[in-house]
Amino acid sequence: MHETALGLLELYSVARGMQAADAGNKAAEVRLIFARPFCAGKFGILWAGNVAEVRSALNAGRRVGSHLVVDETLLPAAHPSLIPALGGANPYPPKAALGIVETYSIASTLGSADAAVKAAHVEVIELRVAIGLGGRGYFSIAGEVAAVRQAVDVARAYVADLGLLVDCQVIPAPDPQLIRRLGLLDG
């Protein structure tokens, strides 16, 4: 299966979320990246696959989720660094600027991270969604200062248009101790 698209469905109910994940999986040939409960009683489902199949999974999940759907996003040509960043797997480049964007939903976090990494020459370092964050999400990016500022501006506009921006910051030269303590650097 050629995976270029990502689709995320976010619900207010764990039980309905499990049912929506099952419906999406049965409606389309997709790979289930995650289907799990998050803080504040939300449930998130992330599918990967070709655009038509991911769209079918989202539609089936949305039908089942009904009024309990909080947010959703379809990324037809998702950046390949997003899935590894969900596990914090992308390395932090030495002496890079750090950009952080925090949102009120996991769908808007994923969508804004995709927009940011496509807008400028930056790397998505980590993408954290909902666990331990009260249902919110954030991502961090790294690169040259100007590129990080540009990417954060694009992400800010994406999330602000949705009314889901918590905050965003650029740290031009983060202290190495901070980077280590955040788990972005070994040692």
Commentary on this structure:
The chain is α+β, with helices and mostly antiparallel strands. The protein has 2 domains: 5-75, Alpha-Beta Plaits, CATH 3.30.70.1710; 82-181, BMC (bacterial microcompartment) domain (Alpha-Beta Plaits, 2-Layer Sandwich), CATH 3.30.70.1710. 39% of the residues lie in helices and 30% in strands. It contains 6 helices and 8 strands. Strands 2-3-1-4 form a 4-stranded antiparallel sheet, sandwiched between helices. Strands 6-7-5-8 form a 4-stranded antiparallel sheet. It is elongated and about 45 Å long. The protein starts with a strand and ends in a 6-residue tail after the last helix.
Please give the CATH class of the largest domain: Alpha Beta
CATH architecture of the largest domain: 2-Layer Sandwich
Individual helix count: 6
Number of strands: 8
| Helical residue percent band | 25-40%
Tell me the CATH superfamily of the largest domain.
Answer: BMC (bacterial microcompartment) domain
- In spatial order, strands of the major sheet run 2-3-1-4
Brief summary of the model shown:
With 187 residues, the protein is of the alpha+beta class. The protein has helices at residues 14-27, 51-65, 82-86, 106-119, 145-162, 176-181, and strands at 5-11, 31-37, 43-49, 69-75, 97-103, 122-129, 137-143, 165-171. The termini are far apart.
